[in-house]
Amino acid sequence: EAGVAQSPRYKIIEKRQSVAFWCNPISGHATLYWYQQILGQGPKLLIQFQNNGVVDDSQLPKDRFSAERLKGVDSTLKIQPAKLEDSAVYLCASSLVDGATNEKLFFGSGTQLSVL
Amino acid sequence: GQQVMQIPQYQHVQEGEDFTTYCNSSTTLSNIQWYKQRPGGHPVFLIQLVKSGEVKKQKRLTFQFGEAKKNSSLHITATQTTDVGTYFCAGPKRNTPLVFGKGTRLSVIA
User: Fold this and answer.
1) Among residues 93-112 of chain A, which lie with CB inside 8 Å of chain B?
2) Domain residue spans in chain A?
3) Model confidence over A11-46: pLDDT tens digits?
4) What is the CATH number of the domain that holds B55?
């Protein structure tokens, strides 16, 4: 079974520039997550989608970050404009949802963003 | 907001020694999950514990969920170099997304 696909793998930009990340979850997984992982820390949830609806975006810095999952499959995460503190690995994860307690997450390889 | 605390932050062991990491929450968790992240890699699911007092084993790994469902532990017996990585616990309150701890980074000296 194919895993969660993310691109690009690495991105280097200057502060105040824009950047976008793409994620294709595992086929059939209704729930998609974007996490930010700063070096030496655990993943921090930015946004959770179920199908194409937002379940939780309480920790998304909405003044600069946006995400969409228009057809309930692929998702993009955008940062505009980027700040130095946005340097991190951006992880996409997906899970099946069957209405029970939280499902295990399958993570992609992530996009490592460096803001100079 | 909800926090999941992990200790220790780092652990260096000789190959063959045992290793334990602890996870504590200030609130009751509906379940707890454990993930392993190899250096340069992404988190990979290890196990989920749901019941109070639950104990599960995977070869040399033993996972426990506390009676009050506020703490958990991961114990590795006779560590090997393949165990190197960061181990994260993650727990939700009811109907909320997973919150990850900061992880315990394990180094194994051959």
Assistant:
1) 101-102, 104-110
2) 5-97
3) 999 999 999 999 999 999 999 999 999 999 999 999
4) 2.60.40.10
